[in-house]
Write a structure and sequence with these properties.
By secondary structure, this protein is α+β, with helices and mostly antiparallel strands. It has one domain (about 10-140). Helices cover about 25% and strands about 30% of the residues. It has a six-stranded antiparallel β-sheet, with helices on one face. Strand 5 (about 120-130) and strand 6 form a beta hairpin. Helix 1 crosses helix 2.
């Protein structure tokens, strides 16, 4: 990697789309267990996207990112403490907490945003008072499938 490309051609983490989705589902279930809720299966929405570079660069080597969304029902009065438990578990695992809010005067009333400095993925959990929903989102960094030849930007 040369110093003039800003690291944009550094090797990407390798993972298949199926493995990324399986991992995101497992991680979301782990957060739900920490919160003491069950994920509503019909709410699960994996969204795959082609990676786009900082200056709108696009290559066709199969690279992608994933935003995995799911919801759980939880009464608003329980959301703050549930999301605080998730926050505490993430801290123990080395995540950086970038935002936490528990304030019923705004929507969403409860917000947790965290980032993994080692694995470069982010987590967002939001609690809404109407309907009584916790929204989970896990976003991966740009990944490339195993066996694909990484093109240069």
């Amino acid at each position: 990697m040369s110093s003039d490309d800003g690291g944009k051609n550094a090797p990407l983490p390798r993972m298949s789309r199926q493995d990324a989705q399986t991992w995101a589902a497992h991680f979301t279930q782990s957060m739900a267990r920490s919160a003491g809720v069950g994920i509503q299966e019909k709410s699960i929405d994996p969204q795959f996207h082609n990676c786009i570079g900082k200056h709108d660069e696009v290559v066709n080597d199969g690279r992608f990112d994933l935003t995995y969304r799911a919801e759980a029902r939880l009464a608003p009065s329980l959301q703050g403490s549930a999301v605080a438990r998730i926050r505490d578990d993430l801290k123990k695992r080395g995540y950086q907490i970038t935002s936490f809010r528990d304030d019923n005067s705004v929507q969403p009333a409860v917000v947790l945003q965290a980032y993994s400095p080692d694995q470069h993925f982010s987590v967002d959990v939001s609690g809404y008072t109407s309907p009584d929903v916790l929204d989970f989102a896990v976003s991966t960094p740009c990944l490339i499938p195993p066996g694909a030849k990484q093109e240069k930007l």
